[in-house]
Amino acid sequence: MTVIADTATRTHRAGELTTSMAALPAGHPARPRLRDRVIEAWLPLARHLSGRYANRGEPRDDLYQVAVLGLIKAVDRFDPERGVDFAGFAIPTIVGELKRHFRDKTWSVRVPRRLQELRLAITGANSTLTHTLGRSPRIADIAACLGISEDEVIDGLEGARAYNSTSLSVPLGEGGTELGDTLGGEDAGYELADLRMALGPAMAGLAEREQKIISLRFYGNLTQQQIAEQIGVSQMHVSRLLARALTKLRQQLGADGG
């Protein structure tokens, strides 16, 4: 009872401070200092509301900072002439800020806002139904609770997978391999295939003897001396013919963007 009485007293005093601040005009010199006192007086409310959203994957301190931001917005926007007390105005403002944080800031992969909101609704329904049913709810249970189709529930559950992503630095086993190491890299085979396609027309532009020397050297793996013996010329002549043929090929492939 003492705790409840103390809480009620603090809330009453905080309300009086808020009313006093709101009564001052915007440019009054005492307003900034009084505003700081009002924010400080209502900090327990921010901490209490942020605690409701704990254990959802976000650090408590971060949630508290978000709640304080919502509190400051409520203090700055509060108008007693609307007929609502400050707590009645501040609570939905702070809760709205917390929900917005979960909706917009904690998704590793961006998904449509509709799926983000659906994910939050499914999470809430799942928690409620678990208590009322005494077991984990089925998709049909959640769909009935939210008044949506089972397909929409499945979409929401699939979208929830984007809420957290796995780091590419996560180790796989004890061999030092990381998840990023399993990703595909650039395949040089594609570039090689393009080169081979361009090489055919380029080879056709060479003289018949130049084509034979290129084929014997790079496809037959013969040395220049072996080529010279096969076509009946000197090794030096083969060297000159090979150099000239390669120059022509480079020029032709370069002209084709190879």
UniProtKB/TrEMBL annotation:
The keyword Cell wall biogenesis/degradation does not apply. Gene3D superfamilies: 1.20.120.1810, Winged helix-like DNA-binding domain superfamily/Winged helix DNA-binding domain. One of its GO terms (biological process) is DNA-templated transcription initiation. Keywords: DNA-binding, Sigma factor, Transcription, Transcription regulation. Pfam families: Sigma70_r2 (PF04542), Sigma70_r3 (PF04539), Sigma70_r4 (PF04545). The keyword DNA-binding applies. GO terms for molecular function: DNA binding; sigma factor activity. Residues 39-107, 118-187, 202-251 form the RNA polymerase sigma-70 region domain. This is RNA polymerase sigma-B factor.
